Amino acid sequence: MLERKVTYLNNKILYNWLIIGIVMKKEDYLKIREIGKGLNDKILNSNKNRDRVLKSAKDLGLLIKDNIIFNDDKEYDLLMEYILYESELNNKKLLNIFLESNYNLSLIEENLLNAMLNSNLSLFEVIGIQKETLSVELHDLLNNKIMKLIDVGFSNTANLGIIIATRLIKISESEFMSSGITFLFSSLMKDKIIRELSNEVFKNRRGKKINLFLFFLKMSRYYGELVKTYSVSEIEGK
Fold first, then answer.
1. Which CATH architecture does the domain made up of 120-236 adopt?
2. What pTM did the predictor assign?
3. pLDDT digits (tens, 9 = 90+) for 122-161
4. How buried is 42 (Cβ within 10 angstroms: 0-12 exposed, 13-18 middle, 19+ buried)?
5. For the chain, domain boundaries
């Protein structure tokens, strides 16, 4: 079995990038998650553009008379994720602009950036939970795939059958982590959301492509459930 070790911030960590058969340990996942957050900050700070921020806030319904109004911290996170992955200014997304820059990145950051560029936002049904491996088995309802999400908190709080909309980022040959924002729905809403999406696609069949993020946000505001988040220490203390 192959192992690839890299040094990051003077700490040697096992990095399982695209290595078959290795079960990711919690400390590896947490390290990758930590590095991912730092990379997000680098990307967001690399090209500060007021027009992009205001346009994104307007798309999300957060802009009132040129002021961005947040009802809670989660709406700030929502805006940051939208700016990072969805917003387009002059037909360019922020991730692509960052890719074209000559920013100095570690090996893990380069792999994460590539995974972010190839990430998918979709609608998933929880079909399996394994707390001991921090994993949640998901059925991609839009692409008919089975995927494994690694998440310390969600693997301890998820229930079978619930529906989530989130963006998955590949962190090993068969494992993914979420980008951060997750829209949560009752299992009873599965057919309704799929039906609503089909209607949107049909109505826009000759127009521009449906923005799934904005669609799932709209569904969440109508039908969503509260997403509870816990720290690792809170999970381990239960």
1. Beta Barrel (2.40)
2. 0.85
3. 999 999 999 999 999 999 999 999 999 999 999 999 999 9
4. middle
5. 27-116, 120-236
